[in-house]
Each structure stands twice: as C-alpha cells, then as structure tokens.
Design goal:
With 294 residues, the protein is α/β, with parallel strands linked by helices. The protein has a single domain, classed as Ribonuclease Z/Hydroxyacylglutathione hydrolase-like (Metallo-beta-lactamase, Chain A, 4-Layer Sandwich). The strands form 3 sheets. Strands 1-2-3-4-5-6 form a 6-stranded mixed beta sheet. The chain has a 5-stranded mixed beta sheet with strand order 7-8-9-10-12. The protein has a two-stranded parallel ribbon with strand order 11-13. The longest helix has 22 residues.
C-alpha cells in the first residue's frame, strides 16, 4: 500500500516536472527606437516587440513622422496591440491620430493622471502649435487613452512595470517603463540625451534618476535625442555632468551667445539646440521683480 502511494506521488511529481519543462518560455523581446527630425523636436518613439505582438511607447508629435513609425511597425511583421503615452506633452501624444488610423484595433492607454491632463492639453497645445505645423497636426478633437487599472504594460506574457508621477527634465507628471528582460527603461521626458534646460532645483530630478539607476539598466531610452544617438545607461551620468558644466560656464561668460557657443563646443553633436538657447536666455534674464507687499 505504502509503495503504491509512493509511486503515485512520484508519478505526480514527474508529470508536473514534464509540464514545466515543456511550458512555453516567454518570448524574447526586442527594442527599436525611432527619433524624429529636429523639426519635430527630436522626440523618440520606442517599439517593443516579441514573436507576434508589438507595443509602442510615445506615438510622436507630427503626423508625418508618426506615419514613419507606422511603416517601421509594419516592417516588423508584428501586430500592434498597445500604444502608451508616458506623459501629457503634445510631442508625445498628438501623433497617435496617425497610429490609430493605421492600426484601429490597437489599445491606446495611459496612467489616469496623464489622461486627465490630456483632456485640456490636447486642444490647447494643438491649437498653440497649429500656426507652425498646420495640417501636420491632428484636429483639436482629443483622442483620449483608456486608463490603466494597474500601472504596467503586458507583452507576450511579460509584465512591464510603470512608475508614474515622476519629476524629470521637462517637469512633473512623467512616467517610465521598465522592461526587465531587456534591462531597459523607457523614460519619456525624464531624460534628455541632448541639450537640455537645467532645473533650478535638481533634487527631485536626481531622485528620479536614482530610481532608474537602481533598476541596473543597460538601455535607457531618452524622450529626446539626436538621430543616431545611442540609448545606453551612460545618459544617467551625462545629465548631471551637463548641468554642472552649464552652471560653471554661466559663471565664466558674459552673454547667452557665449554660453551657447561654449556648451556646443563642450558637447558637440547633441540635438535640441532650441533647449540650450532657451536655457541660456533664461540664465541671463534679470531676476523677476518682487511682488509688492500686500
């Protein structure tokens, strides 16, 4: 009797082991970064795909460049299942109109706070930019994402956690997506691999960068970069180096023009020269007048 029970238990263990051995392994994921032209603010869109499916993080700004992303998606032979917007800035969401036109069955998703901001940001920012870009922008009728009940994306059995409400180089309300199997983090406007506008208070930014660094990534995709730029973790060290150099140079030079020239010489080939120009102008702006006592 005891032998029969033992044999039954052994058979159960062997069957369970066999099931685990033959269970499908999670798909190997791949990552491809599209970077727009300087005309479109050198914004990135990230394609993450497995054997059959693909998700897109940040669907571009201009319709013409979003259509280039469409072509790149089609070239993979995968099915676009999900489009995710990291934050409510127009250069990271207006292009979704072209993406969903090409892939109407794809889900468009964002964190609840991002969707809430897009309700007003879509028409306001679209109308602000329309005199510049005209028909390369969608209509002012907002295409709003579905809100994620859980802060994560899923792709072919893999879970991609999202960390929201982070402070980055372009302000608050950002999010980043972690792709553990690739040791990759897609950062939206938390990270610029380009010229940038140093914040007055770097504390919150550096706290966010520390959270990303704690994930030990090999790949860090910036929200903005020059075409052809690498997407590696060295950008996490580049940012404080750039900010320190900007501040030190500001003390040595006498004009915005000199500051711009010095930073271009120190960091050649970077994108977003417009951000450097804005930062240099602000650095030499007179202090704001104190508000009168009430």
């Amino acid at each position: 009797m005891a032998k029969a029970v033992l044999n039954k238990r052994l058979l159960t263990i062997l069957l369970a082991t066999s099931v685990r051995a033959f269970a499908a392994e999670p798909a190997q994921l791949h990552l491809d970064v599209y970077t727009s032209s300087a005309h479109g603010y050198a914004v990135t869109s990230t394609l993450v795909y497995g054997d059959k499916e693909l998700l897109l993080i940040d669907p571009q700004f201009l319709l013409s460049e979003a259509r280039e992303v469409v072509a790149r998606i089609k070239a993979t032979g995968r099915t676009l299942t999900t489009v995710y917007t990291t934050h409510a800035h127009p250069d990271h969401f207006l292009g979704v109109a072209a993406i969903l036109e090409a892939f109407p069955s794809a889900r468009y998703v964002a964190l609840p706070q991002v969707r809430e901001r897009m309700v007003t940001a879509w028409p306001a920012r679209r109308n602000f930019w329309f005199p510049t870009y005209g028909d390369d922008l969608p209509s002012e009728q907002a295409i709003l994402p579905e809100t994620l009940a859980t802060p994560e994306l899923q792709l072919e059995g893999q879970h991609l956690p999202i960390t929201g409400e982070q402070t980055g180089l372009d302000g608050q309300g950002n999010s980043f997506v972690h792709i553990p199997s690739l040791r990759a983090v897609v950062t939206g406007d938390i990270v610029f691999n380009s010229h940038l506008r140093p914040p007055a208070d770097t504390g919150p930014l550096y706290e966010t960068l520390a959270r990303i660094a704690a994930l030990d990534p090999l790949i860090v995709v910036a929200g903005h970069q020059a075409q052809g730029a690498s997407s590696d973790a060295s950008v996490l060290q580049f940012i404080p180096t750039y900010i320190d150099e900007f501040r030190a140079t500001r003390q040595r030079v006498a004009s915005p023009e000199a500051l711009i020239a010095a930073m271009k010489a120190r960091f050649p080939g970077l994108g977003r020269e417009d951000a450097l120009e804005q930062a240099a102008t602000q650095a030499f702006a007179p202090p704001a007048a104190a508000a009168p006592a009430r």
